Amino acid sequence: MEFNLFIVPLTLIITQLIKSTPIKNTWMPHISVVLGGVLGAVYALYYGGDLMTNVVTGIIYGASASGIYDAAKNTKEVL
């Protein structure tokens, strides 16, 4: 079992907290992906895992937390 799966619920919680700020909701999927990468890096540094592997895994977990479809849809709306 992957112990870095905590990234998904933690990303969801932090993203929900950020939604209460004046930041536009169209940026939430992107923030979620970046946040997942940062949490993956923190996990790798704290537990001594491979940094690149955990950052990529964190990005994937962040993307799954926000939904890739929402990121593409919101980016298209902004452009």
The structure class reads: mainly alpha
Fraction of residues in β-strands: under 5%
Gross geometry: elongated
Number of strands: 0
Largest sheet: none
Order of helices and strands: HHHH
Instruction: Report Rg.
Output: 13 Å
Number of contiguous helices: 4
Low-confidence stretches: none
The overall pLDDT average reads 83
Query: How far from one another are the termini?
Result: 40 Å
Helix percent reads over 70%
In short:
The chain has 79 residues and is mainly alpha-helical.
What report would you give on this structure?
With 79 residues, the protein is an all-alpha fold. The protein is 75% helix and 0% strand. The protein contains four helices and no strands. It has helices at 7-18, 28-47, 51-66, 68-78. Helix 1 packs across helix 2, helix 1 crosses helix 3 (51-66) and helix 2 (28-47) runs antiparallel to helix 3 (51-66). It is elongated. The model has no long low-confidence stretch (mean pLDDT 83).
Task: Summarize the helices and strands and which ones pair or pack.
Layout: H1 7-18, H2 28-47, H3 51-66, H4 68-78
Helix pairs in contact: 1-2, 1-3, 2-3
Considering the chains and any ligands shown, give keywords for the structure.
4 helices; elongated; 75% helix; mainly alpha; 79 residues
